[in-house]
Amino acid sequence: MNENIEFLQAFLKNPGKVGAIKPSSPELALKMIEGVSPDRDNTVLELGVGTGAITKFLQTVLPDPRSYLGIEIDRDLVRSLRRNFPDMAIVHGNAMNTWAIHQRSGNGKVGYIICCLPFVSLPKDVGEKILLEIEKFMDQGNCTFRTFQYAHGYYFPSAIKLREFMRKRFGKSQKSPLIVKNVPPAYTLTWSS
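Now predict its structure.
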């Protein structure tokens, strides 16, 4: 099935969990994986895999499949992702349980978190729980957390809250220039511990 149609179907089924109507552009995907060089002791954790728009670029930098773990909440998308990326560990799960899912995976220490979750549209308590899960990995040190925020939602209260949460714990983010070749245009935000 066409990636755009599949993504739109997921959005229509549950807009609060998908948060967009179109997959990330190649330009945004490349910015999201910039500087990511995983190995078994610095695995990549991708939250909100979606249709794999970023995953297909991550696949090109993986030394082996054991250096990646993807978590996606939509069962239909997980089935499709497993067909499209048979060598990559993509699990059906909720990002509020990220730490436990990673522990069960047997993967090494997480060195990179690539987050595609729609914090702007998530319920407040869900977003807070996910941030606390991310913090557990960041607190281990030598971990990079990268997410993106759409330009039109950059000053929404939930977007500001995410940035404040991370800034208080891990300092100011590295904000990319606006990626205009994405629909809608977006910034990437990066923190390192």
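Residues 2-19 have pLDDT under 50 and may be disordered.
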